[in-house]
Design goal:
heterodimer; A: 83 residues; mainly alpha; 3 helices; B: 134 residues; 4 helices; 85% helix
Amino acid sequence: MGLVLWELMFQLIQFHKKVIKRTKSNSLDNYAGLGFQLVAFVIASVYGGNWADSYFKTEPIFLLSGVFLAVFGVIYMLIIKFK
Amino acid sequence: MKLGFVSKLVIVTIALAVCTATFLYFSQAKEQFWFWAALLFYFIAGLVIGIRTQKAVTSESNSQFFTGVMGGTGLRMLISLLFIGTYLITSNLKSNQFIIYFLILYLFFTIFEIYQLIHRLRAEKQSKVDNATP
């Protein structure tokens, strides 16, 4: 399961890099899009983790993983965006 | 023996971990995993943001310096808000103890980072002065 998660995360990063490359411009709607992207990512990670915890009865492992994924995903997205 | 940024960060984190363990032992706080998660969060954030900021300090261009330092500080604040917001939404306890602990950690790690930056800048300035004197 760990390997599958790792592979999924790797594919997501590759996909995100492609999207960033395609949409790299300084227009206002681009930054607004980034905001929505960040918020959606954080909500999905945290609520996904919370849901997984209640489904697998593994509190608080998935929730904390979701929080960490959200926080460091935001750092990653911002660094890639403003590089 | 001169220690680098990462070694100092590890030492500060271990010292804070000992304080946290003592505090948790005596206070018997509930949902203790949040306290450890906060410490781990600040350690990783300090590592990622700190290394980038340290690089920005030694850069030649002024704009890169300001972007690096201000961006790092702003980013740390943003992700701290994210973490505490997540705690407030998902935790059933919403304990004041944890929030105060989190703010103390924020203070400690921010002071540590600023101290490291000043230390680095001073060393940089000193080496420039030494090189300039004939």
